[in-house]
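Query structure, 300 tokens:
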């Protein structure tokens, strides 16, 4: 009895000691590509925090001109300054994009097309999770509207530029949660039934289906597309759920940092020779799927 009590008392201590090792095990997958990106142009949505911010930072580090497509310009500008200072790359630009409003998406695309000759990398990263029931400006359920439909429209509007800039890539940040997703055509806007957790899953499944169909339609165009699961990452994604916030806090020692979470998106955006895997889904798995084995090495 005393032994069990002692063990229970010491458990947090052992976990604390083992945390770096456990985290290393869980956060496998690092983009080992040495590709540099001078002259390349990239757009990252939701780049003012979390995985998007780290993805943008790494692309800037490699010399790309990076557009931070953010709904909050002030937050975006702060991050742009930070990235410029850290990387020495001044070509980090902030543009307003609210994926919950098709007017904003169209305005972003119009200005971008007028401003830029090329687009080589589009990373559809922004996302919301477990929001209370709400709708976008155009009446779409928020998860489906922002996570899928917003990015769907954005990609469509930028597609000609991507084709002109080929070889170019579109990376859609999905999630392992897609496994629980279903496309309920009779309840797409969640009006008949709504569950915040499942709504997220449905939208993440839509990301993967979109990737597969886009890949099929773009065959031979020089534009390739990939979907990714970034792993479980300590970010602001859980902001709408006090329970998830608490869980993230409790397990924060074991889950990925945003920098680790950015690795799979980066891998798909820059690794040479990935074109044959057009349309595939990548996840930073401990046991690398065949698609991951070359460039995503275990253990960050
Ligand atoms: N974290 C994880 O464990 C995890 C796991 C699987 C998949 N993912 C996926 O990874 C992606 C990035 O998430 P994260 O973990 O980095 O979360 P995050 O820290 O919450 O970042 C989400 C980003 O999306 C932006 N965003 C939200 N709504 C938007 C809108 N209407 N228009 C434009 N931007 C909007 C946010 O902007 P504001 O700051 O202005 O709100 C923020 O920049 C998401 O697609 C998420 O589904 C994350």
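Result returned for the query:
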């Amino acid at each position: 009895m005393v032994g069990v009590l002692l063990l229970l008392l010491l458990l947090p201590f052992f976990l604390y000691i083992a945390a770096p090792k456990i985290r290393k095990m869980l956060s496998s997958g690092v983009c080992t590509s040495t590709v540099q990106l001078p002259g390349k142009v990239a757009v990252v949505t939701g780049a003012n925090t979390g995985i998007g911010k780290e993805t943008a930072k790494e692309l800037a580090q490699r010399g790309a001109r990076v557009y931070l497509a953010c709904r909050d310009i002030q937050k975006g500008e702060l991050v742009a300054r930070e990235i410029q200072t850290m990387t020495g790359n001044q070509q980090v630009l902030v543009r307003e994009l609210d994926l919950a409003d098709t007017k904003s998406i169209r305005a972003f695309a119009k200005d971008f097309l007028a401003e830029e000759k090329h687009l080589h990398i589009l990373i559809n990263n922004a996302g919301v999770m477990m929001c209370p029931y709400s709708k976008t400006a155009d009446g779409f359920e928020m998860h489906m509207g922002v996570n899928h439909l917003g990015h769907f429209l954005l990609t469509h509007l930028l597609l000609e530029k991507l084709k002109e800039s080929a070889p170019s890539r579109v990376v859609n940040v999905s999630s392992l949660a897609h496994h629980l997703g279903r496309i309920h055509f009779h309840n797409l806007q969640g009006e008949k039934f709504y569950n915040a957790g499942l709504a997220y899953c449905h939208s993440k499944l839509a990301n993967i289906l979109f990737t597969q169909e886009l890949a099929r339609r773009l065959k031979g165009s020089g534009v390739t597309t990939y979907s990714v699961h970034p792993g479980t990452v300590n970010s602001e994604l859980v902001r709408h759920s006090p329970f998830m916030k608490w869980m993230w806090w409790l397990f924060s020692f074991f889950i990925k940092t945003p920098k680790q979470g950015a690795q799979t998106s980066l891998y798909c955006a820059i690794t040479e020779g990935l074109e044959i895997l057009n349309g595939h889904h990548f996840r930073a798995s401990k046991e690398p799927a065949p698609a991951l084995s070359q460039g995503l090495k275990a253990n960050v």
